[in-house]
Automatic annotation (TrEMBL):
Transmembrane segments: none annotated. It comes from the Eukaryota. Its EC number is 4.6.1.16. This is tRNA-intron lyase. GO terms for molecular function: nucleic acid binding; tRNA-intron lyase activity. Belongs to the tRNA-intron endonuclease family. One of its GO terms (biological process) is tRNA-type intron splice site recognition and cleavage.
Length: 237
């Protein structure tokens, strides 16, 4: 599926401002100011400078929280976004109940206490981010994520992503589930992308972010077959 750019000139703007370069700029800025966030039971609230809030928006990390403060901005990050910035980019600090989580093990265990399946969801998220896809919540489409080739203001999302883990969730177990998911994503002009996160990880290692190295991600796209588009023209002249 070719990218569906939202306006004339959007493609040129996207090529002029690669996502990878903007992420590097963001990483440097956040690391220099030692930006910090607060972990709650459902997300991370990050305090940043106005310029950093703009960079976060350009990279599509989090959502801005309305505030009356003029010299500070508050950004609501998902667990996956926060851990990516903390663990992968190493550019933010996070605290819980006033206590700084000084290393990735503390943060990992704290997040998993709120979200037990965090290992597989983060593995899928980081897999897509490492390929420079913009990753956003897919809640409104009934999937885990939707991914964009560039900023959503420039291009429509191309894939609706479902994460299937070895823990054995019940999604896509029967054909009716597959049919419903494909039809739904097709009506909004997206392709269903299933990420199978597999690995042999023992219970003890699940408490450490190093377990991520034991997972592999297999990608599979599922599209609806349309006989009208595939049937041979039988008309003879």
């Amino acid at each position: 599926m070719a990218p569906r750019w939202k306006w004339k000139g959007a493609e040129a703007k996207a090529f002029a401002e690669p996502v990878s370069e903007t992420v590097s700029e963001l990483q440097s800025s956040l690391a220099q100011t030692k930006a910090s966030g607060f972990l709650s039971s459902c997300n991370v609230l990050l305090s940043v400078e106005p310029e950093q809030a703009e960079l976060l928006d350009r990279c599509c990390f989090g959502r801005t929280v309305v505030s009356v403060e003029k010299d500070k901005r508050w950004i609501q990050l998902s667990f996956e976004e926060a851990f990516f910035l903390f663990y992968k980019l190493k550019c933010i600090k996070i605290s819980l109940h006033g206590r700084s989580l000084v290393n990735e093990v503390d943060l990992w265990r704290s997040i998993r206490s709120f979200k037990p399946n965090f290992a597989t969801s983060y593995k899928a998220y980081s897999h897509l981010r490492s390929k420079n896809w913009i990753v956003r919540s897919g809640l409104q489409y009934g999937v885990d994520f939707v991914v964009y080739r560039h900023h959503p203001s420039l291009v429509h999302s191309e894939y609706a992503v479902l994460v299937q883990s070895i823990s054995g969730n019940d999604r896509l177990k029967v054909w009716s589930d597959i049919h419903c998911s494909v039809r739904l994503t097709g009506t909004v002009a997206k392709t269903l992308l299933v990420l199978y996160v597999n690995g042999n990880v023992n219970t003890e290692n699940m408490n450490l972010p190093l377990c991520l190295e034991d997972y592999t991600v297999e990608e599979q796209t599922i599209r609806r077959w349309s006989p009208e588009l595939s049937r041979e023209d039988e008309t003879k002249t």
